[in-house]
Amino acid sequence: VYDQLSHHFSEERYRPWPRVRQFLEQLEPGSLVCDAGCGNGKYLQVNPSIFKVGSDRCAASVDVARRKDHEVLICDALNLPYRDESFDAALSIAVIHHLATRDRRVRALRELARILRVGGRILITVWAKEQRHRK
Predict the structure, then answer these.
(1) Is residue 134 part of a domain?
(2) CATH no. for residue 108?
(3) Model pLDDT for residues 14-36, shown as the tens digit of each residue
(4) Which among 25, 33, 63, 70 has most CB atoms closer than 10 A?
(5) What is the pLDDT of residues 76-128, one digit of tens each?
């Protein structure tokens, strides 16, 4: 679905969320950050004093991010191709709720924890399925 919608999605979702921007701006200069599920790379442009690597399963979104000169690759959040404890921080913004089962969501969280250095920071957002207005 996202391969078909990536161009429209990129035009609609280009402004970083304030809380994510704050998280990235508070990191130490030189920090290495993984954005798992980076989409069009909108968070890869925040804070030029840190190094960011993005990944997404959607090839079309990765192409959009590459055209913006971001460091990105195609991969699955369940099998990140990085060494253990190699990142100072990690992001997973509006990604994990897309995984179909609880087991897959837990596996994605474990992958993020695996690549994070001891003492590293992580920011994860998911949609709140229990909100009253949802049916």
Answers:
(1) no
(2) 3.40.50.150
(3) 688 899 999 999 999 999 999 99
(4) 33
(5) 999 999 999 999 999 999 899 888 899 999 999 999 999 999 999 999 998 86
User: Strands of 116-125's sheet, edge to edge?
Assistant: 72-74, 51-56, 32-36, 87-93, 116-125
**Residue 90 domain flag:** yes
Q: Of 40, 37, 71, which Cα lies nearest the Cα of 57?
A: 37
Angle between helix axes 59-67 and 2-12 (nearest 10 degrees) is: 40
The token pair at 7 is 């161009």
Is residue 59 within 8 Å of 3, Cβ to Cβ?
yes
Q: Are strands 87-93 and 116-125 parallel, antiparallel or unpaired?
A: parallel
